[in-house]
Amino acid sequence: MYSYPRALRKLIAELEKLPGIGTHTATRLAFHLLDKSQQEIEELAGALTGFKKNISFCSKCHNMAEEDPCQICSSSERDQSLLCVVESPRDVIAMEKTGEYKGLYHVLRGLISPLDDVGPEDLALANFRERLQELQVQEVIIATDPSTEGDATALYLKKILQGSDIKITRLAQGLPAGGDLEYADEVTLSRALSGRSEIKYD
Asked: The whole model's pTM is what?
């Protein structure tokens, strides 16, 4: 019985490890790459290795960066009294596209999800309190998705901030329940930012 060459089978197996890529799609991608020139394949391979080598995470906000601290944390033009907490670097890009937000970020790189065994200790929160004091933050905007995980994370952040004088707000109108922040269009996200509601301490 005929089977694909070993090199092709290995490529398909590696492509299948990517999120949302099944066997059929991995096979289609592999054959697409097979039609490319050696130079194009080498450029793709170089982009992959260079991406991993040159992009790291900011030690302050945990956003992806090419230098540490990142471009946003290093900017003297950002409002350091305003800190927006998001799940991932993709959310930072979504917020920046609005052109509305001028503060700093704190990227959690995940959300609390007991079903997936993800707890607060798995999030990038080790330096969160330190940043609040260092920056003299006056408002924390919780910009987690309106989902069960996003709500659980927002509740945990509220507990961390309990007893402080920091104002806590959360993105409001315009974001559908269960929707992902990164997929919201700029107008919707701008409205959610401007219409954010304050979370009161108990």
From this structure: 0.76
